[in-house]
């Protein structure tokens, strides 16, 4: 992997990731736009009732919203269009978000573009490109984790208008949180309680039980994907490396080598869940990583959570009063039938 770091016209950092010798000229690509410095009103507030943090980012109301394909800010720059990416082409690129939810002392938000091709998706990438994305995620995790004040790094992809995506170009994001997120804090508490009660690691026990059960979707030598016993979403899959590690930086070479084929197959199955004539499946793909520091870091297990808000062809799962108001999920699709369907649509 080759890494080239430079700056955009307003001072934001941009990092190109390339394979082989294709990085030639990346650093020489100059952002020719006349941009004012980014002004962020981001702040983090603490909810005293729930003991959780909330980011307030009112400046994001003015962010780019569903631009036409020829004005996409994530496509390469051309003679007719000056985008966020000054280079005329790229493989994988990461840059600081111009409309960040977290910034400065409150963290950092980055955009990850998986390909320069506006009209494709992650599922259609080659295994080589998926491996490069994994390398970029890993590099960002390492670099952001070393920044002062960062408590947790979160790599994720939102895909589809139904999820709320405002840019159609294949991309994801990386958030460097100044606090440990609520989901992670809950898992750390339950993992600590499990260790105290059994002397064993919670994540390892769950993975062992799921691997022996009926909800495995696909399994390799180093990864297993399964629908969890208490899945919240209509189609929800958790992907775990067999060797437990706290975050992406700890994956061993064998797991890295196998990941692209396993993950691409999983994404392609998601696109086939609702039949050949259905539009692409909207999803969220989320890497759960351990906090940067803390006593619970060694108990945590890196894993990826992939789920869709579509429950049937042409039907979405909306968060109803029980879920939005009380955090009590009600799933209309049994995890066992979801696992059956995801096995049925395996690549031939």
What order do the helices and strands come in, and which of them pair?
Elements: E1 2-7, E2 13-18, E3 43-47, E4 52-56, E5 92-96, E6 108-113, H1 127-145, E7 152-159, E8 171-177, H2 182-198, H3 202-211, E9 216-219, E10 223-226, E11 235-241, H4 253-272, E12 283-288, E13 303-308, E14 310-312, E15 315-316, H5 321-326, H6 335-344
Antiparallel strand pairs: 1-2, 2-5, 3-4, 5-6, 6-8, 7-8, 7-12, 9-10, 10-11, 11-13, 12-13, 14-15
Overview of this structure, please?
With 348 residues, this protein is an alpha+beta fold. 24% of the residues lie in helices and 23% in strands. It contains 6 helices and 15 strands. It has helices at 127-145, 182-198, 202-211, 253-272, 321-326, 335-344, and strands at 2-7, 13-18, 43-47, 52-56, 92-96, 108-113, 152-159, 171-177, 216-219, 223-226, 235-241, 283-288, 303-308, 310-312, 315-316. It has an 11-stranded antiparallel sheet with strand order 1-2-5-6-8-7-12-13-11-10-9, sandwiched between helices. Strands 3-4 form a two-stranded antiparallel sheet. Strands 14-15 form a two-stranded antiparallel sheet. A hairpin with a 4-residue loop joins β3 and β4 (52-56). α1 (127-145) packs across α4. 37% of the residues are buried. The model has no long low-confidence stretch (mean pLDDT 95).
